[in-house]
Amino acid sequence: MNRQSIPLLSPATGTHRELVSFHFGPKGSGQKIYIQSSLHADETPAMLTTVLLKRRLLELEQQGLLDAEIVLVPVANPVGLGQYVLGQFLGRFDLGSGKNFNRHFMQFSKLTARAKELLGADAAENVRIIRKLIADELAEHKPLTEFESLQLASLKLSFDADVVIDLHCSLEAAMHLYTSEAAWPEFEPLSRFLGAQASLLATNSGGESFDETHSLLWWNLQQAMPADKPVPNGTIAVTVECRGQRDVSYEVAQQDADALVDYLGWRKAIRLEAKPLPALLSPATPLAGSEQFYAPVSGILIHRAKIGDTIRVGQPLFDIVDPLTDETTTISSKTEGVFYMRRAIRFVTTGAPLGRVTGTRAFRTGVLLGA
After folding, report:
1. Does the structural domain 288-357 have CATH classification 2.40.50.100?
2. What is the pTM of this model?
3. Beta-carbon neighbour count of residue 124 at 10 Å?
4. Topology of domain 2-283, CATH
């Protein structure tokens, strides 16, 4: 194991933060796998999973069983990790700018024009050329803030990975994941190993998130290049939501770490005895088909369904009780699917997001991600 550190821009005199990564396996041996956790710094379950995964990878490396370079970043957001306000841990947004730590990553605007000039008929060579172009653009970028330097450091560690796994969690949620349609065949086994109750697919969800910055880059090149300049999926990426913020235990984190090891074994990044694939708990559905629920009024929120339940059309999900008038407003589902996440709130303001149910028919357009 090799520990590396990338210093971030100092936001103020006397302060300093760094992005720490752990590197396992033979570099340049074939596959490169990049795994990070808690880009939203207050999503602790993912962080514990990477702690236990690091221990396992160290054992496997000592046994000579790693056949890929594996880069692990347990604390993907040291900036957000230090954000406390009146005792509340706030790791999703940068308090200095209001920006979401997992939105608006670089989109490599110069890449397509340069690639059109340099790519040829050899797909493998084209991957090498594209990665060199990405590296050049990253080297040219000069961050102005600590926030920007964190995003740049993450991309420099991950841009040349074959597989990017970004571990998060929601507020209250079942295990679920987000990936692209093109990458789904490669991540379906991961969904099985993790026991995901929902797998949501979108090529471009509109948020310029960390995972899509990698996968969308290659998809855009595939659309732009002529047939005689083939571009394969140079990087596939997935966001894994490790249940809810309070689901922090050794047992659950070990289960998820073991699932990641099994998946890396399936990918032949680790030499392990092949395990039979578990059942797929739910088929993949379009992210654009998930129904989002919002509070039409303010009041006390009562949940009427459990996380992970299969929901019927018309089934009540939430009651909102006005404490002054005693009036009750019921919100029911218009979609059949899995109730895969909800907000950890019990009193809501008008318009507040409440939760989501998967659906098989895409009906939403535009930006598909929340704030």
Report:
1. yes
2. 0.97
3. 9
4. Aminopeptidase (3.40.630)
